[in-house]
């Protein structure tokens, strides 16, 4: 065999030994792993001697270190799995035997009940069985027959009806609360609209440098309809979002109106200063002439 073939064979053996050694479930497997570790360590020494590349040698040395650490773990596990000294048996009287037998029977019944508790959901959904573990009747039935009671279909139907009624009542209460909130917010909308209209009328009547508002500027202001009824407001989430959008537009328009007033004042002051400068210029020129 060539060196490469020997090396590959040794590495395959090493992987097989590790796969066995990593399973610490049984003591027999641990004993086999301990013997396999010794063989894998010997094989690694041969592979290190045959290998010429230094990098691959370092890899093999690291693997050898892991084998040493695994062997220590195996020894610890084997010590734990050693059999302990057997306990001395005590003599039992006839009376104690009867009591113990009754206790064992009770324990068996409790185990069955615990299994039923764990599998209660499966029994209810799949098998169609209802289990009341705490009741004494079921315990007695399990002792006699080993079976449980079945669910009454009428009881299930009545429970479902009660749930649907409760859901409908909750939805009606929510709709009424939303309608009351919309009624309370309606007068605020009308006040904001009146303020906008008064501002537009006063602005159009004045004679400023910028002139009256154009149609383009007037279109920026939102004008809600006067036939708006709060009682007709629906309570869906979509209409609530539209209501919030309207209030935001009104706030923005009010801010824009304030900004336009400030610009008008600035422009009027600038024009007044320009007129004074022109008058001074002409008076000075006429005086020299």
Automatic annotation (TrEMBL):
Instruction: Show the stretches that span the lipid bilayer.
Output: none
Q: Where is the composition biased (Low complexity)?
A: 168-181
Keyword Translocase carried by entry? no
Spell out the InterPro entries in the cross-references: MIT_dom_sf (IPR036181)
Q: Where is this region: Disordered?
A: 89-108, 138-187
Name it.
Aryl hydrocarbon receptor
Q: Which residues form a coiled coil?
A: 246-280
Keyword annotations for this protein?
Coiled coil, Receptor
Q: What organism does the record attribute this protein to?
A: Anaeramoeba flamelloides
């Amino acid at each position: 065999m060539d060196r490469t073939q020997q090396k590959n064979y040794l590495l395959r053996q090493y992987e097989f030994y590790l796969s066995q050694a990593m399973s610490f479930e049984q003591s027999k497997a641990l004993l086999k792993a301990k013997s396999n570790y010794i063989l894998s360590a010997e094989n690694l020494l041969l592979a290190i001697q045959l290998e010429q590349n230094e990098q691959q040698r370092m890899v093999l040395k690291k693997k050898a270190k892991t084998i040493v650490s695994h062997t220590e773990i195996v020894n610890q596990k084997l010590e734990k799995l050693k059999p302990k000294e057997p306990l001395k048996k005590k003599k039992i009287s006839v009376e104690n035997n009867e009591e113990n037998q009754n206790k064992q029977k009770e324990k068996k019944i409790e185990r069955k009940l615990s299994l039923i508790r764990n599998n209660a959901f499966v029994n209810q959904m799949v098998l169609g069985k209802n289990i009341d573990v705490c009741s004494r009747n079921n315990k007695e039935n399990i002792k006699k027959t080993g079976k449980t009671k079945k669910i009454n279909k009428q009881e299930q139907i009545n429970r479902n009806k009660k749930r649907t009624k409760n859901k409908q009542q909750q939805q009606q209460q929510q709709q009424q609360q939303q309608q009351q909130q919309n009624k309370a917010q309606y007068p605020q909308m009308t006040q904001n609209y009146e303020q906008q209209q008064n501002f537009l009328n006063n602005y159009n009547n004045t004679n400023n440098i910028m002139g009256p508002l154009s149609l383009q500027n007037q279109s920026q202001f939102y004008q809600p309809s006067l036939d708006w009824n709060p009682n007709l407001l629906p309570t869906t989430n979509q209409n609530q979002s539209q209501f919030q959008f309207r209030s935001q537009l009104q706030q923005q328009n009010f801010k824009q109106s304030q900004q336009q007033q400030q610009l008008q004042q600035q422009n009027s002051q600038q024009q007044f200063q320009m007129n004074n400068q022109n008058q001074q210029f002409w008076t000075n020129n006429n005086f020299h002439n």
